[in-house]
Amino acid sequence: MIVVLTGGTGGAKLVQGLALILPPAELTIVVNTGDDLVWWGLHVSPDLDTITYGLSGRLSIERGWGVDGDSFHCREAMGSLGSPVWFQLGDRDLATHLVRTQLMTAGRTLSQATEHITRGLGIGSRVLPMTDSTVETRVMTPQGELSFQEYFVRDRFRPEVSGVRFAGAEQARPAPGVIEAIECAAAVVLAPSNPVTSIGPILAVPGIREALLRTRAPAVAVSPLVGNAAVSGPTGNLMRSQGLPVSLEGIIRCYDDFLDLLLVDSRDALNAAGNELFNVPLHASNIVMKSESEKVELARQTLLAAHAITPRDRTTLKRHEA
How far apart are CA 320 and CA 128, in angstroms? Predict the structure, then answer.
């Protein structure tokens, strides 16, 4: 089994590539829920939705989120009635949030609701939220503390960031199946998602990082950077807010206690060829996925690198310090 830890857009592309070359039952995806929010009274899980839409062939390629070809008539009507509309939900997208909210209001967990939705969308792979507990990514700015969606969507990640915290993480527990999947995996892949606000919340849930230290599976990460810039989004600003350099070194420092190999962009080949940082080998590939064939090729390269690497003895490594 291949286990992927992922957030939304960039991670969804790699997950789509892996789904095209692996049998569905051999792929388990653990998804960030720190971005979840209640919108118009509905429980919305943006990263879970992006992954499920990507796996089911419904994801909008143009936007990278939401349902392909969706309309926004409800949003327009809500706006005309004075409701906030800065967070966009499409009409067909609403069905997912309505079903999730109905199930959770009736006592189902987020994991159970996710299983119901993925089964309804015909997905054969296992999609797991990182936790059934409430964990909220909070972004500190000069204007005050913001939810991630306020920072990312409403304010278009313009505010200066002084810090990030994961409210509720200390009391959270991994969702059922997460720890077992990591411990039994043939390989663990960290998708090219933001290491601070996409992968960071997953690792903040007690027990998940410890499972990554225990597993005998190789842990391979795909960098979200090309050179010293993010492929997309505010990754650079968020890394700087954590005192991390916006570089391969910064990515490795996020995962230093369990990472066995980092895939980097081929344009960083001079840094990657025959090189390593902090005893972590670097493998060069094209990490910018603009087409289905590029998604498949990066997935193939990721699996080849994972199968070729021997996991380090993690018992001898210095433990990560937040």
Answer: 24
At residue 129, does pLDDT exceed 60? yes
Encoding tokens for residue 2?
Answer: 């291949």
Q: Residues 299, 59, 298, CA angle at the centre, nearest 5°?
A: 10
Which two three-digit tokens encode residue 246?
């916006």
Residue 71 CA to residue 235 CA, distance in Å, equals 30
Amino acid symbol at 269? A
Spatial separation of the C-alpha atoms in residues 159 and 191, rounded to whole Å: 26
Residues 6+ apart with CB under 8 A from 48: 31, 33, 114, 127, 129
Distance (Å, rounded) from C-alpha 127 to C-alpha 56? 12
Amino acid, res. 118: T
Q: Has residue 318 got a pLDDT over 60?
A: no
Which residue do the tokens 């910064």 mark?
250
DSSP assignment letter at 64? S
List helix spans (H) across the chain: 9-21, 46-56, 73-80, 91-105, 110-120, 148-149, 178-184, 199-204, 208-214, 235-241, 248-254, 269-272, 292-308
Region for residue 244 given its phi and psi (left: phi exceeds 0; alpha: psi -120 to 50; beta: otherwise): beta
- Please state, in angstroms and rounded to a whole number, the distance separating the CA atoms of residues 29 and 7: 10
Residue 241 tokens read as 């807010």
- From edge to edge, which strands make up the β-sheet containing 187-190? 126-129, 27-31, 2-6, 187-190, 219-222, 261-265, 280-285, 276-277
**In the structure, how many helices (H) and strands (E) does the chain have?**
13, 15
248 Cβ partners below 8 Å, 6+ apart?
223, 225, 262, 264, 268, 271, 277, 282
Residue 283 in tokens: 């493998």
**Residue 8: its pLDDT value, please?**
83
Across 198-212, average pLDDT = 98
Q: Report which of 286, 294, 284, 293 is spatially closest to residue 263, judged by C-alpha positions.
A: 284
Which pLDDT score, from 0 to 100, does residue 322 have?
44
